[in-house]
Amino acid sequence: MVFQSLAEKLQSALDKLKGKGKLTEKDVKAALREVKMALLEADVNFKVVKDFVKKIQERAVGHEVMESLTPGQQVIKIVNDELTQLMGGTQSKLTVASKPPTVVMLVGLQGAGKTTTCGKLARVLEKQGRRPLLVAADIYRPAAIKQLQVLGERLDIPVFSMGDQTNPIDIAKGALSYAESHGRDYLIIDTAGRLHINEELMNELKEIKAAVKPHEILLVVDAMTGQDAVNVAEKFDEALGIDGVILTKLDGDARGGAALSIRAVTGKPIKFVGMGEKLDALEPFHPDRMASRILGMGDVLSLIEKAQQSIDLKKAQELERKLKKQEFTLEDFLEQMKQVRNMGPLDQLLGMIPGMGKVKHLKNLQVDEKALDHIEAIINSMTIEERRNPDIINGSRRRRIARGSGTSVQEVNRVLKQFNQLRKMMKQLNDMQKGGKFGRFPFF
């Protein structure tokens, strides 16, 4: 889960304050020492940690906490507030040009995921009803242009290219003219990166900036590089002037130092975060929601947004009807599993549920996505009749299904057993809620 190591340590330190009826200054200082160590181990900038802890201590030993009926909870609220402010306070959205197209220029070092992020950003904008154009201006990295074109094909979003023999400045200018004449309201320019910051790279980026006057210059950095990501952000901002940051691979970073340091050190907001490899795994960055997740309070708003984007309301209503009439089949089971998986990795979804991170057997949960693939393969290997009436699946049918899905009879038996248990649970829920209504959030 995101920030898992940091989250566990912070929550552990603050939990010690919860059980105390009255807090002393000594109690607060002891907890904040643990908070300080947790942040430093997460590779958060030392000065940022020092200022952060100082602010909390000043507020936590004041009248509002010491005289409170729930002092421990008051301290946690203060930490949540300060953590939110540390990461920017509120969501920072993309600037929109008064006259289209809005020009967005993505910059960064090689290996940060810049080209893929161009595609992901285009996908985000398209979902908002925009008409983005991707621009292949990286003429140096082998296959960079082809990679962007493949992404464009997968997303059904046009890619402007003039090959690898044309000057990137001319490519950017040509793309701007094309966007204006073809009604494209966003221009996303994929620029060249280097293995390190050098004068040649910066000069080229400055020339592109002067030629097309981007409304947004977004620096793409790899969250897993920790403090180096912050250093890169500082240098790019000094040389080029950036408007914000996109942190990639945040789902793979259990520490989180870059996310907690970048805004405080550079003054530049994190606008998006990459939360996986899929092309829809780029999310707007909400400091308040991220602070809440780090402190184990969940992120219900993001969970609801994911559900709204991924779940077919008509299918959910049909499921409700089937549940009430005891008509839930393996076809429905498969459909619900697909819809929930479309929302993202299951361990991330669990991390958005308040208090779920503190449930012991779920803390180190590793969701085996391959096991879910096997369930899909098994159900897909059944006939329509078998999916709708699993009671007819005898021994020979189970062997055939196992062969067809590339699994074992034991796995087929396990899926059928799980489904029958689920059906019984659904019946019990239905009996308990007779006269009421099932919520329209899918579950399985």
Automatic annotation (TrEMBL):
Record localization: Cytoplasm
Enzyme Commission number, as recorded: 3.6.5.4
A molecular function GO annotation: GTPase activity
Domain SRP54-type proteins GTP-binding: 269-282
SUPFAM superfamilies: P-loop containing nucleoside triphosphate hydrolases, Signal peptide-binding domain
SMART domains reported in the protein's UniProt record: AAA (SM00382), SRP54 (SM00962), SRP54_N (SM00963)
Sequence positions that bind GTP: 108-115, 190-194, 248-251
Assembly information from the UniProt record: Part of the signal recognition particle protein translocation system, which is composed of SRP and FtsY.
Family under the similarity heading: Belongs to the GTP-binding SRP family. SRP54 subfamily.
Functional description taken from the UniProt entry: Involved in targeting and insertion of nascent membrane proteins into the cytoplasmic membrane. Binds to the hydrophobic signal sequence of the ribosome-nascent chain (RNC) as it emerges from the ribosomes. The SRP-RNC complex is then targeted to the cytoplasmic membrane where it interacts with the SRP receptor FtsY.
Domain observations: Composed of three domains: the N-terminal N domain, which is responsible for interactions with the ribosome, the central G domain, which binds GTP, and the C-terminal M domain, which binds the RNA and the signal sequence of the RNC.
Protein name, entry field: Signal recognition particle protein
Gene encoding the protein: ffh
